[in-house]
Structure formats: structure tokens, C-alpha cells
């Protein structure tokens, strides 16, 4: 059993978050006047500028509690816990609705973009309202979890070190988006839990400083292992929002890689350098 595997990515939930422009929001001064008393047009435009958006930044955390178990259909499978963390400046807000573009029985999903109304660079639920809505995919009624999921929330891939060819993969893992666990560290100490319901009409989301966690026992948290897969070190990559459906501050830090040593029916951690990208 592996607990708390080390990611081979340099991005961590403790990194400094960014907003849509990569910098913290600042207060804009009001219009000023020239020596003649005339209003400065440029200053007036700045004062009227819309508040900046506060976007989420989703990252998969490294796989935890990695195990090998017998598969229901025979053979063996790699099982693990997974988490989607929001380390951005704004919450992820997903609202279900009706409309075209989704398979029968699913619901069209909109992402609500929060705005920094007081321009202090920090999301304040009471003062920073939701702004525009953008299309963000579909929600579905999960057949075994008994609640609604946001589709294509994550992907899982197992590869050999230095080889991008998948040994096993699932590219469309759906999640009920909610605040399951506050992120560790002093920076997130003031994070507030907001999202928890995943009914048909519920607004789903992940607050800043929280992660949505799916434990090792949850259906879908597995990859099949071929009977003839040799023992050795493998790379388990978890990627948040693999299809790029959501607006984020960054799109290049969504993945986390864990090095796993597979020996028969046992899994153990391996040196993280085994799965580090080539320099």
C-alpha cells in the first residue's frame, strides 16, 4: 500500500495563486482632472473598468493510498485515491441547466466566473459576486454514486518511465464537485467550506483552498493491470480538467505524477526521480 506518494511535478498547492492576468487585483484610482479642471479621459476609463475576474486553478494532487486488488471481472487492478484541488484566486462554480449540446439525460453546465468587486486580490464570498457564465460541458446522473457529476473532471494514465504510451488509461472520470478537504498549510487556514450538494439542480464547486477527494474505495478509482505486465516502476499521472472545459488561471499545471513500484499483487512508492520529465 502506498500513502502520500510524492508528485514529480514542481507545482504544489502552496504555490502563489494567480488571477486571470497573472497578478493580484489592485484598486483603480478614480478620474483625475488636469490643471484646467478638465477630466482626464484615460483616468475616467480606468475608473469605469470592470472588476477583474477571479478564476479557479485546478490541480490534481498526487495519487494516495495506491493498492493492487483483484478486479471484479478477474485479474488485478491498480486502485488509488484522487483529489482535485483549487489553488486559484476564485472558486470553481458549476451550475446545471437545460439546453442543447449534451447527451440525452444529461444537463448542460455553465461555469460562473467570480469578479474581484473590491479589487483586493482576494476572493470574499460576501462582496465578490459571480459575473458572466460560460459553457463548461455536461453533468450526468452517476449510475453507482447516486448523485450528479460534472463530466470529464479528470483523467488517469499509467505509463513506463520515459515512455508516453499508456499501459492503462481512463480519460473521462466524472466528479461530484464539492469541498471535501481543506488544503494543508497556513495559507489555507482561513478557507471556507461552501459546496457539498450534488443533486440534479445543485450548484457544484470547489472553494479556494479546498480539494474534492475520491477515496480508494470509490467506484471508478482504478486502472486495469494486464496479467502479463512485468514487475517494475511505473508512472501514475492524474490530470484535472483534461479536456480544458473550465476557465482557469493556468492550464499547464493540472497534472501530478507519482512513481509506483508494482511487484505482483503489491504496490509501493518509488523514487520520484523515476518519473521526472527529461530536462
UniProtKB/TrEMBL annotation:
<feature type="compositionally biased region" description="Polar residues">
    <location>
        <begin position="9"/>
        <end position="24"/>
    </location>
</feature>
<feature type="region of interest" description="Disordered">
    <location>
        <begin position="1"/>
        <end position="64"/>
    </location>
</feature>
<dbReference type="GO" id="GO:0016641">
    <property type="term" value="F:oxidoreductase activity, acting on the CH-NH2 group of donors, oxygen as acceptor"/>
</dbReference>
<protein>
    <submittedName>
        <fullName>Lysyl oxidase</fullName>
    </submittedName>
</protein>
<dbReference type="InterPro" id="IPR001695">
    <property type="entry name" value="Lysyl_oxidase"/>
</dbReference>
<dbReference type="Pfam" id="PF01186">
    <property type="entry name" value="Lysyl_oxidase"/>
</dbReference>
<dbReference type="GO" id="GO:0005507">
    <property type="term" value="F:copper ion binding"/>
</dbReference>
Amino acid at each position: 500500500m502506498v500513502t502520500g506518494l510524492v508528485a514529480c511535478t514542481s507545482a504544489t498547492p502552496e504555490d502563489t495563486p494567480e488571477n486571470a492576468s497573472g497578478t493580484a487585483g489592485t484598486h483603480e484610482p478614480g478620474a483625475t482632472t488636469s490643471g484646467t479642471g478638465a477630466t482626464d479621459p484615460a483616468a475616467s476609463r480606468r475608473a469605469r473598468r470592470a472588476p477583474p475576474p477571479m478564476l479557479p486553478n485546478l490541480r490534481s494532487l498526487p495519487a494516495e493510498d495506491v493498492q493492487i486488488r483483484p478486479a471484479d471481472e478477474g485479474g488485478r487492478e491498480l486502485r488509488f485515491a484522487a483529489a482535485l484541488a483549487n489553488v486559484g484566486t476564485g472558486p470553481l462554480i458549476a451550475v446545471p441547466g437545460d439546453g442543447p449540446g449534451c447527451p440525452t439525460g444529461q444537463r448542460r453546465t455553465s461555469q460562473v466566473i467570480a469578479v474581484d468587486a473590491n479589487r483586493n486580490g482576494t476572493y470574499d464570498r460576501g462582496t465578490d459576486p459571480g459575473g458572466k457564465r460560460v459553457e463548461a460541458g455536461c453533468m450526468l446522473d452517476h449510475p453507482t454514486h447516486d448523485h450528479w457529476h460534472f463530466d470529464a473532471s479528470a483523467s488517469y494514465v499509467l505509463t513506463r518511465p520515459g515512455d508516453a504510451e499508456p499501459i492503462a488509461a481512463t480519460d473521462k472520470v466524472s466528479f461530484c464537485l464539492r469541498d471535501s478537504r481543506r488544503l494543508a498549510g497556513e495559507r489555507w487556514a482561513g478557507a471556507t467550506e461552501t459546496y457539498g450538494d450534488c443533486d440534479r439542480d445543485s450548484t457544484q464547486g470547489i472553494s479556494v483552498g479546498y480539494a474534492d477527494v475520491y477515496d480508494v474505495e470509490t467506484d471508478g478509482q482504478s486502472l486495469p493491470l494486464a496479467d502479463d505486465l512485468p514487475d517494475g516502476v511505473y508512472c501514475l499521472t492524474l490530470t484535472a480538467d483534461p479536456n480544458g472545459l473550465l476557465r482557469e488561471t493556468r492550464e499547464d499545471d493540472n497534472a501530478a505524477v507519482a512513481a509506483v513500484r508494482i511487484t505482483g499483487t503489491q504496490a509501493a512508492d518509488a523514487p520520484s526521480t523515476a518519473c521526472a520529465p527529461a530536462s
